[in-house]
Amino acid sequence: MYEFDYRDQYTIAELVPDHVLENIFSYLSLRDLRNCSLACKTWFRILSDENNDVWRFHCYKKLAEEVRKSDLLTSVPTYKSKLRAFFHAWSPRDCSRNIYIKPNGFTLHRNPVAQSTDACRAKIGFYRGRHAWEVIWEGPLGTVAVVGISTRDAPLQCQGYVGLLGSDEQSWGWNLVDNHLLHNGETQGHYPRLNNCPKYQVGERIRVILDCERRTLSFERSYEFLGVAFRGLPRRRLYPTVSAVYGNTEVSMVYLGSPVDG
């Protein structure tokens, strides 16, 4: 007589209830979870749910309660997207000695050091694909406040109050104070190219869009696309970067992932 064998129709992964798998996955490292998502369709389906208990557990483990309850991460609503933003945030190891990263992991603080311009890069740079992130200047701008990108070779500190980001061929930036583009130590024109463009207001979210395929850098403000700021970017790994001069000013960065067109 034929005996039923569950292997005829089901895999072991399909027989284990989702809530049990989620509980098991919550004990794994993020690297292991990535490998698990490639193992079978069932595991891929579970780990593709960015708001399940797996990602909630890791989100609560990595992110401070302060930032989880704040409005800073409103643009990344799922647990997994918040985690992604955390791992792309400012790097405490790649910034001026006059800058430190606050405990929330997303906000830099520039110490009040006279006659110094200071910069900070994100933890992860990009050399392919399309990427978007938000920058929120949460303190006074001072005379120079620049948002943009740089390579690893760009300096992160210099004497005086200058547009450090954009001061050489390794960085590209938009000075929010006078609405000028900066690269290779020169002003690259007024930006955005709009009549009577309003100045940046502290607390506004600037969306930065890097297209490594078209080699362009663009910006949005209040969901309005401001146009392409830089073209012909090098085929090198480029990092989200800001430079600041005002003492005790703070700047937050939230990585969004691939930009949504339209």
Query: How far apart lie the N and C ends?
Result: 62 Å
Work out the helicity level: 10-25%
Write down the overall mean pLDDT.
90
Largest sheet properties: 8 strands, antiparallel
Number of helical regions = 7
Radius of gyration: 22 Å
Structural class: alpha+beta
Strand and helix order: HHHHHHHEEEEEEEEEEEEEEE
Poorly predicted regions:
none
Backbone shape: elongated
Q: What is the number of beta strands?
A: 15
Strand content: 25-35%
GO cellular component, one term: SCF ubiquitin ligase complex
Subcellular location: Synapse
Organism: Parnassius apollo (Apollo butterfly)
Subunit structure: Component of an E3 ubiquitin ligase complex composed of hiw and Fsn.
Give a quick set of tags describing it.
262 residues, alpha+beta, eight-stranded antiparallel β-sheet, seven-stranded antiparallel β-sheet, 7 helices, elongated, F-box/SPRY domain-containing protein 1, ubl conjugation pathway
